[in-house]
TrEMBL record:
UniProt keyword list: Iron, Iron-sulfur, Metal-binding, S-adenosyl-L-methionine
Membrane spanning residue stretches: none
Coiled coil: none
Protein name according to UniProt: His-Xaa-Ser system radical SAM maturase HxsC
Molecular function as annotated in GO: catalytic activity; iron-sulfur cluster binding; metal ion binding
Cofactor(s) required for function per UniProt: [4Fe-4S] cluster
Length: 359
């Protein structure tokens, strides 16, 4: 697994700061140049601080944007220059309690917008950065201000924001319209049955709220990616949800049907929730057929390719972020591996898909 946190040494009296590992000559005060190296330790110098990193090579981190935390003596890799999978964790707070949540909510919030703004300014050209939580829109004012500032400094960036969609208001419409070309909103919907959706997200009334707020996104002309994790609780309802989406949410840019991640509440509730689509693809297939017949975009995220019938494999994206992706020993010889999403690092064979078959 690729490490997103590196061991770092720095003057513990310093405040946390953002820096970029210079790939060549430094271009700004935040750029850190390699001053020395010896057995497993790299020494860096910026315009305002020195720090050391352990257990990495200069090539591993060239161009990366790091948040150095002197008190904890760690460096967080906010942006890996060579990866398309970079996400800022806006908050760990959330007002939902989803059965399969991979990042269970925490009560405290640490405002990181200042660091994120610097990191966005230092991002590689054309970067598309994920913003996630928790629920980022619980801190809507700070989030909107951060995005405004980032776009003012960089006209080539875009953000993909994951939100439960509960917190948009009519007065947000001008702001949503202003940035609609550069923001993609990823919003989960688990069923067209309100009780099922509310049960999955652990919040009574969530579906009614979501329906209203999705309409606002439609009014704004915002780019919308609907997201549905397939679970035992909603699998049989997927054709009905497809029908709902095509009739009520035709403005959605795409509908991503996703497999579950076995971490956080997802691990705790795995047996209760995991739906083995390798042995039963009928409802998924029916939902996809309906979407295709009505010419609305649909995609499959986090599905190992051999678990998907051949007729639907063109929809399966290599969606698992590189830092938490793995393959099984049997995948070594598989001809599909280069275009297969593989598995989450924390996937377990013993309670996972029944039918993994190298092709
Ligand atoms: S055997 Fe492995 S690489 Fe091949 S399709 Fe299945 S999961 Fe993917």
């Amino acid at each position: 697994m690729i490490q997103l946190r590196l061991r770092s040494d720095c003057d513990g009296a310093l405040s946390p700061f953002v820096t970029r590992i210079a790939n060549g000559e430094p271009r700004c005060a935040e750029d850190a140049v390699l001053a020395w190296q010896e057995a497993g330790v790299l020494g860096f110098r910026t315009g305002y601080a020195d720090f050391r990193l352990r257990d990495v090579t200069p090539a591993d981190i060239a161009g990366d944007v790091l948040l150095i935390d002197p008190r904890r003596q760690v460096a967080h890799r906010l942006i890996r220059a060579a990866s398309p999978h970079n996400t800022f964790l806006i908050t760990e707070q959330c007002d939902q309690l989803c059965l399969m949540c991979s990042q269970p909510p925490k009560p405290h919030h640490e405002d990181m917008f200042g660091h994120f703004r610097t990191a966005a300014r230092l991002a590689p050209p054309g970067a598309q950065i994920g913003l996630s939580g928790g629920e980022p829109l619980l801190h809507k004012r700070g989030l909107f201000d951060f995005i405004d500032a980032a776009f003012a400094e960089r006209d080539d960036l875009g953000f993909h924001i994951l939100t439960n969609g509960q917190h948009f208001e009519r007065e947000d419409l001008p702001w949503l319209r202003k940035h609609r070309e550069r923001l993609l909103w990823g919003v989960p919907i688990y069923s067209d049955n309100a009780a099922t959706h509310d049960e999955i997200v652990g919040k009574p009334g969530a579906f009614a709220e979501l329906s209203e707020k999705l309409s606002l996104l439609g009014l704004a002309g915002a780019a919308l990616e609907l997201r549905t994790v397939v679970l035992k609780q909603n699998a049989s309802g997927l054709p009905g949800l497809a029908d709902f989406i095509t009739r009520h949410l035709p403005f959605a840019a795409t509908w991503a049907i996703m497999q579950m991640e076995r971490i956080g509440y997802g691990r705790m509730n795995w047996t209760r929730c995991f739906f083995d689509s390798s042995t039963n693809f009928a409802d998924l297939g029916a939902a996809i057929d309906l979407m295709r017949a009505r010419r609305q975009s649909v995609a499959l995220y986090n599905f190992p390719l051999c678990t998907v019938p051949p007729a639907y494999r063109d929809l399966a994206a290599r969606s698992i972020s590189d830092w938490k992706q793995k393959y099984l020993p049997g995948c070594e010889s598989c001809s599909l591996r280069a275009r297969c999403a593989g598995f989450f690092e924390w996937y377990r064979d013993e309670d996972g898909f029944m039918e993994i078959q190298p092709q």
